[in-house]
Amino acid sequence: MTRFECDYGEGAAPAVLDLLARTNAEQTPGYGEDAYCAVAADRVRALCAAPQAAVHFFVGATQANLTVIDALLRPWQGVLCAETGHINVHETGAVEATGHKCLPLPAADGKLAAEQVAAAVAAHRASASHEHEAMPAMVYVSQPTECGTLYTKSELADLSAVCRQNGLLLFVDGARLAYALAYGQNDLSLPDLAALCDAFYLGGTKCGALFGEALVLPDPDLCPDFRYALKQHGGMLAKGRLLGLQFLALLGGAGAGPIEQTPYYTMAARANVLADRIAAAFAAKGCAPLYSGCCANQRFFTLPAAWYETLSRDFAMTVMGRGPGTVAVRLCTSWATREDAVDALCAAAAAL
Amino acid sequence: MTRFECDYGEGAAPAVLDLLARTNAEQTPGYGEDAYCAVAADRVRALCAAPQAAVHFFVGATQANLTVIDALLRPWQGVLCAETGHINVHETGAVEATGHKCLPLPAADGKLAAEQVAAAVAAHRASASHEHEAMPAMVYVSQPTECGTLYTKSELADLSAVCRQNGLLLFVDGARLAYALAYGQNDLSLPDLAALCDAFYLGGTKCGALFGEALVLPDPDLCPDFRYALKQHGGMLAKGRLLGLQFLALLGGAGAGPIEQTPYYTMAARANVLADRIAAAFAAKGCAPLYSGCCANQRFFTLPAAWYETLSRDFAMTVMGRGPGTVAVRLCTSWATREDAVDALCAAAAAL
Amino acid sequence: MTRFECDYGEGAAPAVLDLLARTNAEQTPGYGEDAYCAVAADRVRALCAAPQAAVHFFVGATQANLTVIDALLRPWQGVLCAETGHINVHETGAVEATGHKCLPLPAADGKLAAEQVAAAVAAHRASASHEHEAMPAMVYVSQPTECGTLYTKSELADLSAVCRQNGLLLFVDGARLAYALAYGQNDLSLPDLAALCDAFYLGGTKCGALFGEALVLPDPDLCPDFRYALKQHGGMLAKGRLLGLQFLALLGGAGAGPIEQTPYYTMAARANVLADRIAAAFAAKGCAPLYSGCCANQRFFTLPAAWYETLSRDFAMTVMGRGPGTVAVRLCTSWATREDAVDALCAAAAAL
Amino acid sequence: MTRFECDYGEGAAPAVLDLLARTNAEQTPGYGEDAYCAVAADRVRALCAAPQAAVHFFVGATQANLTVIDALLRPWQGVLCAETGHINVHETGAVEATGHKCLPLPAADGKLAAEQVAAAVAAHRASASHEHEAMPAMVYVSQPTECGTLYTKSELADLSAVCRQNGLLLFVDGARLAYALAYGQNDLSLPDLAALCDAFYLGGTKCGALFGEALVLPDPDLCPDFRYALKQHGGMLAKGRLLGLQFLALLGGAGAGPIEQTPYYTMAARANVLADRIAAAFAAKGCAPLYSGCCANQRFFTLPAAWYETLSRDFAMTVMGRGPGTVAVRLCTSWATREDAVDALCAAAAAL
Predict the structure, then answer these.
(1) Residue C293 and residue C300: Cα distance in Å, rounded?
(2) Neighbours, chain C (3 or more CB pairs < 8 A)
């Protein structure tokens, strides 16, 4: 069985393991107060052109999402998100468990439009019973989205403008951000994110690390006590340096080159190319993509059920849904995907 | 200005105030541990033909909703409800503030169908990532619904059957239950509710009391520690007898007759008749009802905007929404609605 | 049985019931947006010499406590309080249920000293692991305390100064505030409270109302969205005017005289005198007071168990604890206490 | 600077890193549903002689504590713990953030006695206002405690008996359990823990892993939906196998020998010996131990402040508090402590 169902099926990029091994015997303070975390945070700030930003490291994305939302919102405030947003459908109500309501909006292909946000906020404020509704106070989007689509710089700038006009925070879940950054048509850079968002993270878990997400709060005054929130939700890793070290391995340290020269980016770029090959193979068979504009390292197709049965004997895919005689699937590549595995999958598809 | 925008615009039925005044100087234990609450609870049990039921009194409906849901569910469990359900749209995220996710389903005219619940539960259980989703564990419906429609006995029995087959709890918000019970076509009785539901309440606030909701848990073993939950959420009234007394005034005490002979019922029946007159007046003008099957004491119409402007000079209505040239409104009657007020409204409508 | 165990054993002061009855048929908007609430809030502001203050009405004190604390603190912030504080011991963990930790400090006779607060804050800030501790961010005290003692103006000013120097909020639970205000030796006025505190309330439930607490937030910008919090916690009464009306009955309306001329004050003053009589009767028998400085309408004594057995046949008291051969009790008076009941109790005590 | 201030200052035991590296390229399902986790869970069950137990892996101890408590208790239930208990003082109110109150009891040397628990439960149940108090429903203890002391088998059996007689759950925080198991005088085994507790964990983070805690629920029916709770609190690691692998490296796999032959045990035994040497060095200087019965890998002493100043130039220690002219410190050893570092510390102490 070769696995294409997700991008967290293997361990870590060798450079990550190497650095962990090389520094293993060193003694450092705990809880992220070590020099490796400090240098990694500096490196993140430099890549984001956000020299004042607060940077916090998390073990995982759900932990990051729930902590950010709980730390930045007041109890009666809710989060506007795509109905397909990860926080709305795949985190077991983790945001609600912190007391905040997800406020889902319809989202073609997983993306929210600035107009939707503006309309939702306007409707809330115009309502005679607005105090009886959760107050929209944040917009959560994912880049890439859960449907594999990307926000353009212009689209995110529009969302950001609506948020700032209305006093909402903009939070970008970047669990797969490397793949977005490294995709050819992408025009949304780390400095753009830092300029447009109030919070976003560079995902590590799905982009070459054993685990880890690097949260950026461009305004350091937004939540000076953020580390209390991190600890309170069980998100402060005792051996915090493991997070700093991994991001150093992926992003390079002080003085390293631009993002395009980092393993974080180059590994993702390679995975995107492999995903393009897979997409071409399915397109050649006439399989319709499930979403429009899907790109980067996740691809979604609707297959005849018989084809799915055949392929799934050798290749693990995520089933997104089933129709009459059809199965909708997701296939992912990652930094760890082997070319021969893609060759085999494409050949199997061609032979259907 | 005459108010038809809600059913809680006045104080209480005179019998309620009288009983409060008559017993005012008596000394009783606090927190609902007095004899009046005990007798009122017995009376509720008798009317529900549920001699073992636990009965708890609340000041208000949001408090009842959030406490019931928090007391009966485990943290990761969510509540299936109509997308128009009160808990989903008009309680400022009160359920989420207790950590539980509302799981809204599309609902024509405010009603959930048993098939929808069955499908949602089946989809959750079939999902490979079900542990990543809030677990559907309760169904919340309102009788009457927020759209003024009623569940038939057969419809609620179907919902109940699906819930019991799947281990979900069924919770009926009866904030306006008097109006449902007293409506001509209604075939769903208090004993039916006690037989079919795991929790429901007889609303007092909108049905003749100053305030108060009488929660019935037909199975007394469902939550033996419920009073801890009541206190923890600030819902345990110090002078708890005020709740028992009001329900005694509305429902009668030990040995009183059937529900049809109580002020609770007769006042609601009268309000329903007044609502029928209002509905007829608007129908005569060709105003389309907003929902199909709307009845009891709430009525919803779409009016030409100019008509709304004219009427609203003298009559308060709730604006549900605005379309191009139209305004959708709700009009309510209650135990307190005066006949001459209805005459005036109908005349004004006729004159449009 | 004559009840002295609490101050919420009867209904309401007749003036309260009268006003409710007199206004019963009027139609008003719901949820506290009526004219009565507006006038009552103005009256509270005037009495507090706090013309800008936000005033919010609650049904009960636990609801007020949990809502204020949840609305004003961030998730990782805790509340310094006396170990005997109501929120710490008698609210079923209501504050913790909103996510906030009570941080109890030892309190002789129920009172916190400014030095204790200063020391606790200093210790937290000096701790190398302060991010691993709940952050002290509010001080909660009760006036009178749960032990029947009073803060002097000087003591509260000291607490306020420490809070302001350190950025903590000061919150005074005034569930029995009338009895404090009306006690002879008291020197802490409503304007003092408004000047020294960030939040406090004038209790109604235990001071002559059926129910109700009037919260004052002297700085209206402290929480502009407070009404969302009120609704989210189920604390927004549908017929909100009932709260405004009751405080008008207790405090008088626009243009009424100083607090000393209000029923709120005069009823409490009378209750305090009756409590003094009870205290004298027990003191004459040599019963030791449980706390030093106890005054106002609650009194605490340690009795021989045999005396307790005798008295408790006719008089309900709250048992605070039992020692070898002794019982510690609380006795309360209220606006409703009858003089002949006090006569009887004192005679019974004398006859022990 | 040589660090003795904690037992999580280095990376992982080499065997852990080796196994991670060796399996790095393998593809497995995510979220702990892989074969390594399954085998590691089997191994934990075998070592605990608890073949039916549910085993769940966490990244860290605070995450484990808050998830277990939230998953096993109802909202109004609280946790009895030592006032020095980690959940009470060092987790930023993480337990309260899930809504549950810590109910601290005085604890000499960090240990709770069965009698204290029995008395607390009895007092709650005898209270007339028990519904106004958080209900004690769980006992949380740490083995070793936060003061470095150990429960004997007899002591834990007594606690367990009180819990079972009263329907409370017993939860043992084993963040440093290896050091307890491997300490000479210890008589409390893994099978004992499984027989006496409702939940406990084998700490990994402080016992040789990069991170990880292995939670054991001896009764698999106690919380069948526990994985929902794990996900909801952000505790479900995407690459869950990292946890299974690490525990395999520490505990051995199927068919491995008794606990005494595992790296988990032997590394801890060695650390305990080094801690004994440190203790002897300080005792020889007349430094009083801070707690009585302290053993295993944490030692606490009160030093003259001048000695602390001298030592702390070269050796990092945790400051527990300061007295007039004295400093109380904690020193820890771990699987990673080097003998030459201990030699140097002992020599420095001798030279004071």
Answers:
(1) 11
(2) A, B, D
What confidence tier does C26 reach under pLDDT thresholds 50, 70, 90? very high
- Which chain C positions have a beta carbon within 8 Å of B336's beta carbon? 25, 27
Which H, E and C letters describe chain A, residue by residue? CEECCCCCCCCCCHHHHHHHHHCCCCCCCCCCCCHHHHHHHHHHHHHHCCCCCEEEEECCHHHHHHHHHHHHCCCCEEEEEECCCHHHHCCCCHHHHCCCCEEEECCHHHCCCHHHHHHHHHHHHHCCCHHHCCEEEEEEEECCCCCCCCCCHHHHHHHHHHHHHHCCEEEEECCCHHHHHCCCCCCCCHHHHHHHCCEEEEECCCCCCCCCEEEEECCCCCCCCHHHHHHHCCCCCCCCHHHHHHHHHHHCCCCCCCHHHCHHHHHHHHHHHHHHHHHHHHHHCCCEECCCCCCCCEEEEEEEHHHHHHHCCCEECEEEEEECCEEEEEEECCCCCCHHHHHHHHHHHHCC
pLDDT above 90 for D337: yes
Phi/psi at B234 (nearest 5 deg)? 75, 20
> pLDDT tens-digit profile of C100-132?
999 999 998 999 999 999 999 999 999 999 999
Nearest of B300, B310, B297, B304 to residue B345 by alpha carbon? B310
Cβ contact, residue pair B228, D70, below 8 Å:
no
pLDDT tens, position by position, A300-328 = 999 999 999 999 999 999 999 999 999 99
- What the block records as the tokens of B143 is 């009788």
C-alpha R_g of chain C: 20
In whole angstroms, give the CA distance from residue C97 to residue A262.
46
Whether this model's pTM surpasses 0.90: yes
Question: CA torsion, points B222, B225, B226, B228, in degrees to nearest 10?
Answer: -160
* Cis bond before residue D14 (omega within 30° of 0): no
Q: Which of D67, D131, D226 to mutate to test the interface with B (most CBs of B within 10 A)?
A: D131
Q: Which chain A residues touch D66 with a CB distance below 8 Å?
A: 233-234
Measure CB to CB from residue A93 to each of B78, B92, B93 and give the nearest one: B78
Q: Which amino acid is at B110?
A: G
Dihedral, D278, D281, D285, D289 alpha carbons, nearest 10? 30
Chain C interface disruption, residue of A131, A225, A230, most C CBs within 10 A = A131
Residue B178 has pLDDT above 90, yes or no: yes
Helices C241-251 and C263-284, axial angle in degrees (round to 10): 70
Could you tell me which residues are beta bridge partners of residue D331? D299
Q: Which of B92, B176, B206, B314 to mutate to test the interface with C (most CBs of C within 10 A)?
A: B92
User: Which residues, in sequence order, are bridge partners of residue D80?
Assistant: D103, D139
Show the domains of chain D with their CATH numbers.
Answer: 2-7+263-350 (3.90.1150.10), 15-258 (3.40.640.10)
Neighbour subunits, B (≥3 Cβ pairs < 8 A): A, C, D
Using an 8 Å Cβ cutoff, are B209 and B19 in contact?
Answer: no
Q: Which of A2, A8, A61 is opposite residue D239, by nearest beta carbon?
A: A8
Closest alpha carbon within chain B to A5: B128
Query: Distances in Å between the alpha carbon of C101 and those of A230, B37, C79, C96?
Result: 16, 34, 6, 6
- Closest chain D residue by Cα to residue B131: D228
Task: Name every residue in D having a CB less than 8 A away from some CB of C.
Answer: 75-76, 78, 89-93, 96-102, 128-129, 131-135, 318-319
C-alpha to C-alpha distance for C138 and C105, rounded to whole angstroms: 13
> How far apart (Å, rounded) are the C-alpha atoms in residues A92 and C17?
49
Task: Give the whole-angstrom CA distance, residue D68 versus residue D70.
Answer: 6
3 state SS of D137: strand
Q: Which of C76, C131, C225 sits opposite A76 (nearest CB)?
A: C225
